[in-house]
Amino acid sequence: QALVDIAAALGALESDPVYGAVATAYNDRLGAEWIEEFAAYSVLVGLVELLLAVTNVGTGQILTRFIPEVYGLGYRYTLRRMIVALLGLRYLVLLCAVLVIYAFVPVVSGWIGLEHWTGAVELYLLVVLFRVVTATVFQVLEAMLHQGVGQAALATVTVSRFLLVFVAYEDGHLGLTTLIWLELTTDLVGAV
Description:
The structure is a single chain. By secondary structure, this protein is mainly α. Helix content is 85%, strand content 0%. It is flat and about 60 Å long.
């Protein structure tokens, strides 16, 4: 709703002699449909953050507290077992949460104001899966003092996403579905 209000404010400014040209350019470039899609995208990004927190079930705290210590002591077998157990638990909880949301997409979409975007919500659940998996792997790398690898992957994802979004925007093909596919593609690159 806030983005719709911004569009309305820009529309009101179009008659202003100082800001009119800028407001007209933004309104022409954005359009009401694009603003609505951006609002839906903003809610979907919040879904990632919500599932990052809900599916954590304490694994993040254990990773950051005990993995560096076990790694530093050189207990390789214990380290492997801890990481496998923690990742297995995190991914199992994540998969269950995503499957429950997928099963009830029409209901969940209504709760978060995206009842007209159920297809986008279903597609974005893939982004949620990859984003949470990569965030967890990054947390493991960080705990084992391999921040360089994690930071390189994060930088690659961020820069490639920025460039792809810029190209799609300049070509006039930046819609919600395109943006979700770009995110999914860049998250896959980061996971590799």
